[in-house]
Every structure is written in structure tokens, then in C-alpha cells.
Amino acid sequence: MARNLMALLAGLTFGLGLVISQMVNPAKVIAFLDLFGNWDPSLAFVMGAALIVTAIGYRFVWLRPRPVLAESFQVPGNRKVDAKLATGAVLFGIGWGLVGLCPGPAIAALTIGGVPALGFLAAMAAGMLAFEVFDRRAAKPA
After folding, report:
1. Which of 28, 46, 47, 62 could form a disulfide with 22 if both were Cys (CB 3.0 to 4.6 A apart)?
2. pLDDT tens, 9-47?
3. Domain boundaries in the chain?
């Protein structure tokens, strides 16, 4: 129960941060990505602050023998950059640049954005489903 409450609190804090920083505003994000046009650098400060907080937080977390509400740390074992990862990153970047939303901010945008965010999330879910279908077909032996 405590883990679920902490997860809820972390999610609400993250979503509130996205709303306050305006990362849920597609126009603001697109202006940040428009380096050679009407560039708005304010989101760089948001991302920089997030990196600083994360770096400091990790220093404290790794001093502990285990997490507060779990038996062990869950660190990904695979650190290899492969074609699937690179392709996914490129598609993520293209989608973020075209629409001005990515999954976290799109969910938070439901609180203020309504229908456009809902359309994005529906398209995202369809893309995830299509990936699962094609990935499973590709993994099956012939």
C-alpha cells in the first residue's frame, strides 16, 4: 500500500511539474524545438533543473543498501544501443517535434488540454499496439 501511495504521489508531482513548466503546452514545446525560428529557450531551464535534481538525488539514493519501499534496486541490465532502440528514439523525436507532446506531458495535458491530448494518446496507443503486433510476428519462427 505504501508503494502505491508513493507512486501516486510521485506521479502527481511529476504531472504538476509538467503543467507548471508548460511542457503540456504543444506551442511552447514546438517553440523550444524551433532553433532557427522563434526559439523559446525556457524549457531548457526546466530540463536543466530536472537534471540537477536527478543527479543530486541519485547521489543520495546510491548511498543506501536498498530502496525504502522495495527489496532491491531495479537497474536495467541491457545497456546496448541497437537498431530498435535507435529507431524508437528517432520516431519519438519526430513525433515530439511535429506535435509538441510526448507520453508523460500528454497524460498531464488531459487535465487542461482535453480533446487534442486525447487524440494524441489514442494515436500513441494505436502505435504501441501496432508495434506489439508486428514485433510478435517478427519474433515467431518461420
Report:
1. 28
2. 998 998 888 888 888 888 888 899 889 988 999 989 989
3. 2-139
